[in-house]
Amino acid sequence: MTKLTNDEIRQNVRSRYKQVAIQQIQPTATSSCCSTDSCCDVHPDASVVSAKLGYSDEELSAVPDGANLGLGCGNPQAIAELKPGEVVLDLGSGGGFDCFLAARQVGDEGYVIGVDMTPEMVSRARTNALKGGYTNTDFRLGEIEYLPLADRTVNVIISNCVINLSPDKAQVFSEAFRVLQPGGRLAISDIVTTTELPPEIKNDMNELYSACVSGASSIEEITTLLQLSGFTDISIEPKDESKSFIKDWVPGANVDNYIVSAVIKANRP
């Protein structure tokens, strides 16, 4: 099998999430961009999926229609301990769901920046911001390996099941460290491996990679990458209960035997 380049992997992921962005969410829809209930699939009822990820009814009802696409593997803004006035960056912001929730927490004196590499997602998020009347959010087109932000301009970085999709995670964490202010923090939800992925999963650089499976790293690998980037106070907490929804991402593949959602935290000294 020909090994894909990093750019080819990004193009595959971008193409998949373009499909998600332009999908019309219908209550009875059954079509998907990949597999049922996966991290890259618009669920017929996104609120059902998000409730499983830890979002409250109040949070689900607080965002504009079309912002919650039922993506992700956790609730990063809930673990970020956001404070009024902080500047927050969301890596892979999608339709803006987590950004809008974060915007409520940081208030009018704070600011939330969402970065996404898919133009259709950025357009969708900007439309949702207008619908919701959000004046403290900004959605930018860019790759999380090359962030369109200046050095030391962000207090908190959040992300929801996106970093696993990057073929260059070392560069992602290096960029995260660069844009964080000293004393800033990283608070993300992402997928980690619990054991070695079998070859048929690990080598699938298209369907299963875009489904947040093949690109997952181990806790040890992520810890090392964070340390090499300069982060301290690193904490990675696997969430075994996430297997209840991960098992449905790729029906019949038993991916819950190999991956789990985790809460990943770290600080920039």
CATH class category label:
Alpha Beta
- The number of domains is 1
Helical element count?
11
The string of secondary-structure elements, in order, is HHHHEHEHEEHEHHEHEHE
CATH superfamily label: Vaccinia Virus protein VP39
Strand content: 15-25%
* CATH overall fold name: Rossmann fold
Q: Give the % helix.
A: 25-40%
Mean pLDDT: 90
Q: By helix and strand content, what is the structural category? A: alpha/beta
Radius of gyration: 17 Å
Spans where pLDDT lies below 50 across 5 or more residues: 24-38
CATH architecture annotation: 3-Layer(aba) Sandwich
Principal-axis shape: globular
> In this structure, how is the largest beta sheet organized?
8 strands, mixed
Query: Count the strands?
Result: 8
- Cα(first) to Cα(last) distance is 43 Å
Domain Methyltransferase: 83-229
EC number: 2.1.1.137
Protein name: Arsenite methyltransferase
InterPro entries: Arsenite_MeTrfase-like, Methyltranfer_dom, SAM-dependent_MTases_sf
Layout of helices and strands:
Layout: H1 6-22, H2 46-52, H3 57-62, H4 76-79, E1 87-91, H5 97-106, E2 111-116, H6 119-132, E3 137-141, E4 154-160, H7 169-179, E5 180-193, H8 199-202, H9 207-210, E6 217-218, H10 219-229, E7 232-239, H11 243-246, E8 259-267
Parallel strand pairs: 1-2, 1-4, 2-3, 4-5, 5-6
Antiparallel strand pairs: 5-8, 7-8
Helix pairs in contact: 1-6, 7-10
EC number: 2.1.1.137
Protein name: Arsenite methyltransferase
GO molecular function: arsenite methyltransferase activity
Descriptive notes:
Helix content is 34%, strand content 21%. The protein has 269 residues and is an alpha/beta fold. The protein has one domain: Rossmann fold, CATH 3.40.50. Strands 1, 2, 3, 4, 5, 6, 7 and 8 form an eight-stranded mixed sheet that branches. Helix 5 links the parallel strand 1 and strand 2. It is globular and about 50 Å long. About 6% of the residues have low confidence.
